[in-house]
Structures are given as structure tokens and as C-alpha cells.
Amino acid sequence: MTTSALAIEVDGLCKYYGAHQVLHGVNLTVKPGEKIVVCGPSGSGKSTLIRCLNKLEEHQQGRIRVLGTELNDEIDNINEIRREVGMVFQHFNLFPHLTVLENCVLAPMLVRKIDRKTAEEQAMTYLERVKIPQKAKNYPGELSGGQQQRVAIARALCMKPEIMLFDEPTSALDPEMISEVLDVMIQLAQGGMTMVCVTHEMGFARKVADRVIFMDQGKIVEDAPPADFFDNPQHERSKLFLSQILGH
Amino acid sequence: MTATTEIQAPALNDSLLDSVRRDYFSSVGRTILTLVCLALILSALWFLVNWGLVNAVWFGTPEDCHKAAGACWAVITDRYRLIFFGLYPYEEQWRSALACLAILATVILSCVPFFWSAKRLPVLWALGYGLFYFLMKGGVFGMPVVLETQWGGLALTVFVFSSTVVIGMPLAIVLALLRRSRLPVVSTVTALFIDGIRSLPLLSILFTAAIILPLTLPGFLVGDKLYRVIIGAAVFFAVYQAEIIRSGIQSLPAGQEEAATALGLNYWQTISRIVLPQAFRFALPPTINQVVIAFMETALIVILGFFEITASGNAAFSTGGWKPFHTEVYSFVALIYFVFTYSLSMYGSYLERSMKLGLR
Question: Is Transport among the key words of this record (chain A) (predicted)?
């Protein structure tokens, strides 16, 4: 892997669904160790943006470089990036036919080619870190939403990624379970992980984000440190958004 | 702890008698219906026991049977080897019996989760079918050669059925995956193939395989009629099973493939570890159904001159004065079919129960 000063570089990114354009020339850079929170109204393109970063969505124009590797049509590049970029989904997407432990060792064994024993030991350390080692032998269906999401985080970490992407990780959770997931994410941020989080948890953004990115209609409207963004938003659209989500 | 009033669940002091009274005799209409049905069931049972057990003849000649009022099981005890082995040479029938057991063992072992891996299943099948072939065909270890045209009875039925499924199932998976291809040419051609075969009756496919193919194929590709017919039946099974598997794949939430992709798994790893195991769980009931249909349809090969179990049953009563006792022979053959079909459906429900744990 070529060394690069930047973890993620996005330059003039455009994305269309058929004739409908969802991203209009997005530019974004993320330094190693930086924590970015992406927010914005529904349909603003924030999920599409982070799904482009590991090519779950294909972009039509612009460039994406992740850890110095160009994200183009070359399968080797795509695979290399996917190995180094972990992702956590809104609906957890654990594999229901595998136990928690098997969920965690599958990719390290198949993709990183490490043996089962090492993979299991490593999985247990991450399961301990997300405080759920006692459920290793259970199936995902036997866990609560918050527990499942913590397992999903551990599963992504087992690949030892350089970057973690979070796509609304708490939006599908009952209110009581949000904090257990956020605690894990805060701990991860404090450990120095590079993170890009699409989330509406403004408390989390204030606490750990280095920058908050506000998107609307497929464009980045505001890109500022959380203190500036929350206390002194520059754009009318951001002010309206903040007043709506913080106003009650 | 503060004092809490314990709330008792309403007592379920339902005795068997109470529940019978409630379910079957709670109104005049119900009582009448219950009594009528009971009378029908009892009289049917009475007849069956008298005919099939009490007055039955178990051993003897057709003359003994004519004298008796009950079933003539003597035709089975006299002719069972014809039913089980067809035209297979009499002195060599132990080979057919062993071959049948080899195939049954292969089928049963294939049902055990331990063997469900890309390494173990092919080895098991190669051993099972290899053993069957050498036992049936002979020509090695001093066993005289018996040609495919003389194979028959239960061994043939089980061989044709299991080969159809063993060839047809992998083919079905390939077809289902090709039909989901992102390349429009591949998916369209596969869809046309599947729909094309589905628009043909099985009978016409079997006739084509048995009679028309040899006219068009080069000599070295023709092979025995039996194998051509098995390939035909397997293709027919595969196109239906492909659609069943595809429906199973479509029941998967889109997030499953996305999660596997995001973890860096490649296409085959995603398909074999994430997609297919879950798709088969969703598709299990229709899959078992399709397998049962494949078993019943083996009877069709009789019109191509194969002596499978229905045909050899036919032969069993058509000579030697046994003609009036076709009911007994057909009952016996039906019982064999039932044992197979019922075992398949019991296996299906066992799988459904044991797989439920993972999918809640």
C-alpha cells in the first residue's frame, strides 16, 4: 500500500440513479485518525456518499482514493480497500445462520487467511471490547438490537481495518439501546480509529467528532468543527436543520 | 420486596374426557357428524383388518388364494424377487440387493449435515455410485456382466431417482445463479432455457433423450439409453429446482450480500457461505416437495422399456395364475413408495426444525 497523508480523498464525486442525480460533485478529505460525522436531512445523499467509499455503490464521475489506493474498476484495488475499511449498517446485517463467533471469524479466515484458532482468539478480544463475550455461541436472532449492533462492530473490527464507516448505526435501535452502541463507538474513537459516521446523534458528534459535515440535496453545505457547527452555523439550511432536530 | 398479589394463571384442569366432549360432542350437529365419521372409520378398519390380516393367505399357490376370502399376500411372498429385482439374472440378484443398499446408504449419508461440504459430498457420491455401478454391471472380480437393459425393480427406481437429484441439484444451483447474473445476455439466455424446458412435458423430454438423441449425437457420445434418460430427468428437475432456489435467494434481505461484500468476501465466498445456506433454509419445503415429485416421476420411464418397480410389479401378477391379485401387488408397491415419500417428508421437517434455531 502506498503511503499517503490522507485516509480518504473524494474529489468531484457524482452519483446517479438512472437519470436522477444524488451526489453533485462532493469533495471531502479525511486525515488518518480523524472522526467525521455526516448529517443532513433524509435524501441528502449522506448514506450514498459513505457507501461509495467501499464501492457498495458505484459512482459515475469524480475520484475516490482510500488509503492512497484509487477506487476504480480494478478488482484488486476494490478488494484491498474493502479489506481495510470496516462498515457497520443501520440494520446490523449479521449473518443469521452463523453464531456470533462464526460471524466474527468468517472474513478474517477467508479474506485474511488466518487460521481458525488465531481468528477465534482475536474475535474473543473484540467481543470482550464490545462487552458481549458471553454471547459468542449464540445466534444473532437470540440477541437484542443493541447487542447485535455491538457484535456487528466487533465483526468489522476483526478484519483490523484502518477506517470504520458507520451508516446510521443507531437509527434502528430502541432508545434504551442507543447508548450501549454509542459507548462502544466513543471508546473506538478514543482509541484513534479513523471514523466516518452518518448519524443524527448530535451528542456523539459534539463529543468525539473532529468535523461535522452537513449535506443537503447531494452537496456538502457545511464542513466545520462541532463547536462551530452547533453554536454558529453559517448556512440557512444548517440553521433550519439544527433548529428542527435540537428544537424540542 | 413489597407484597405483591400473585396472579394465578387460569387452571387448565382439562381432562382428556372434557376436551373430547368439547371438541366433538358440544352440539347436536357435531355429535351426529362425529358418530357418522366414527362409523365410517371403524367399518373401513374392520374390512381392512379382515381382508388384509385375518382372512389373508400368506404363503401358497393361486388356488389357495381363490379358496380364501381375504388378501392374497402369497403373490408377494412368491414373486417378491421379481418385484425387487426385475429381469436381473436370478443367481446374481444378491448383487442388485447390495447395489440398492449402497445407493440407499449414499442417499441417507447425503442427508447428514456432516457430509455437506464441497470436499465430502463428491467423495461420498463417487464411492456410492461407483459401488452401485460395479455391482450392477459386473465384469470385475469374477462377476458376470449384466447389461443395463436387464437392470430393474427397486434398485433401478432408486438409482434413477437419486441420480436425477444428485445431478439435478448442482445444475439447479448453477442455473439459479446464472439467472441472477448482472450480465443481461447471461440472465436472458438462462431464463429462456429454464422457461423453454418448463414448457415441455417430462414425457417428451424422456422420449427425446431415449429415442431422438441417438440419431443426432456422434456415436461416442450416445451412451446407454438409461444414462440419457437420467440426464433428461435431471435437466427437467433442475429447471424447476432452479426457480425454487432463486425464490429462496430472493427472500434474503439485501443487507446480507452487502455485509459480506463490505467484509471483503469475494463472489464465490459470498454465494457459498452466506447466500446459498440461507436460501436453502427458505426454500426447504418446496425443495422437499420437488424431490418427492422427482421420486414419483421415475415411474414414467416404464414407457421407455425400463423395468422399474411399478413395471416389475405388473410383471409379478401377469403370469402363473396370479392375475386376479393385482390389488395386493399394487398395494405392496404403493407401500414401498409411501415409505420413501414419508421418509423424505419426515427428513424435511427434521431439517426445518434443526435449522430454525439460526433464523429467528
Answer: yes
